[in-house]
Amino acid sequence: MISIVSRPPPGYTSQAPVASALRIPPGRRERPRRITGLLPRRVTRPPIPTVEGISMSTSDRPATAAGTFTIGGDLPVRRLGYGTMQLPGPGVWGESRDPEEAVRVLRRAVELGVNFIDTADAYGPFVADHLLKKALHPYPSDLVIATKAGFARTGPGQWVPIGRPEYLRQQVELSLRHLGLERIDLLQLHRIDPSVPLADQVGELAALQQEGKIRHIGLSEVGIAEVEEASRTATIVSVQNLYNLSRRDAEPVLEHASARDMAFIPWFPLATGELARAGGPLASVAEEHGATPAQLALAWLLKRSPVILPIPGTSSVAHLEDNVAAALVDLDDAEYAVLLRSVA
Ligand SMILES: NC(=O)c1ccc[n+]([C@@H]2O[C@H](COP(=O)([O-])OP(=O)(O)OC[C@H]3O[C@@H](n4cnc5c(N)ncnc54)[C@H](OP(=O)(O)O)[C@@H]3O)[C@@H](O)[C@H]2O)c1
């Protein structure tokens, strides 16, 4: 019997434990309450303090239930983040179809407790970064913005890797300006340019780090050999690879990252929406157990490894709220296995 329970926050007390409010009792055919958005009204939680000292409950800020991961040993983030790639226009090119909703999405993410946002100079280009700055600058003190450099954009859906050191430097300088930052917390090399020695690409990022413009360096879409080669030039604190419940080719890299306490940031955590859609591979399990498909896909990632930081992308507040509530879904081992089988 599969059940979905909610992680109780520290100090949680209630007449009706969260587990019994959401778990499907053995032998009962009754469906549990939906957990989309916030917790069921009947379940009340005591306020818990946040790092800013403002009292808010986990149901107000569901991302807090995902727990934290400390990037590079000194940058704590809540494990369920947000990715900005859905905010620019079609083909991740040009202005947003709905800039006001995009701003609402970013502000709502922070309200829900998200403090890790992944973006890139290439999204728009710079459209996502302008929206980020408009929505959230001056940034909350605990917000970590991870960005990337290494792709030039030549049109909708077109991505050209450029890793020449002078280009990477230019893009980092532009990112600082567009985001309104003095230092980038996490700069990820978006792609390794095969025509430029890796040591030169990572070496330029290390030089920018020495100059105080970058705090930590990460990589994107790499194999273990590339992580090891890059690590000879600089300390690599994160890897961002394509990974989700239905696409797990990056398992070896994930294992490598887990063994070294390196953040693993899975891009396409919802398989570009395939895992989230009605009628998709998780739809019947989700329907049966009172969650949404997106929540199950994200809860599976959160359980897969403590170094995983999912960054689901969306252009809608409703989908954002649905996704962040995944932090409240706690899968047991049997449920985890059922989800794996459901996409096999
Ligand atoms: N390093 C890299 O090379 C790389 C490559 C790709 C992406 N990324 C990063 O990874 C992030 C996530 O990837 P992604 O945004 O492309 O893909 P994704 O998170 O796997 O899926 C996004 C898609 O799912 C839909 N969606 C989101 N939440 C939903 C929900 N609750 N119900 C139904 N549909 C939902 C979105 O549509 P709506 O907008 O309508 O919600 C969108 O079409 C990006 O934002 C970006 O930061 C990095």
TrEMBL record:
<keyword id="KW-0560">Oxidoreductase</keyword>
<dbReference type="Pfam" id="PF00248">
    <property type="entry name" value="Aldo_ket_red"/>
</dbReference>
<protein>
    <submittedName>
        <fullName>Oxidoreductase, aryl-alcohol dehydrogenase like protein</fullName>
    </submittedName>
</protein>
<feature type="domain" description="NADP-dependent oxidoreductase">
    <location>
        <begin position="79"/>
        <end position="337"/>
    </location>
</feature>
<dbReference type="InterPro" id="IPR023210">
    <property type="entry name" value="NADP_OxRdtase_dom"/>
</dbReference>
<feature type="region of interest" description="Disordered">
    <location>
        <begin position="46"/>
        <end position="67"/>
    </location>
</feature>
<dbReference type="InterPro" id="IPR036812">
    <property type="entry name" value="NAD(P)_OxRdtase_dom_sf"/>
</dbReference>
<dbReference type="GO" id="GO:0005737">
    <property type="term" value="C:cytoplasm"/>
</dbReference>
<dbReference type="InterPro" id="IPR020471">
    <property type="entry name" value="AKR"/>
</dbReference>
<dbReference type="InterPro" id="IPR050791">
    <property type="entry name" value="Aldo-Keto_reductase"/>
</dbReference>
<dbReference type="GO" id="GO:0016491">
    <property type="term" value="F:oxidoreductase activity"/>
</dbReference>
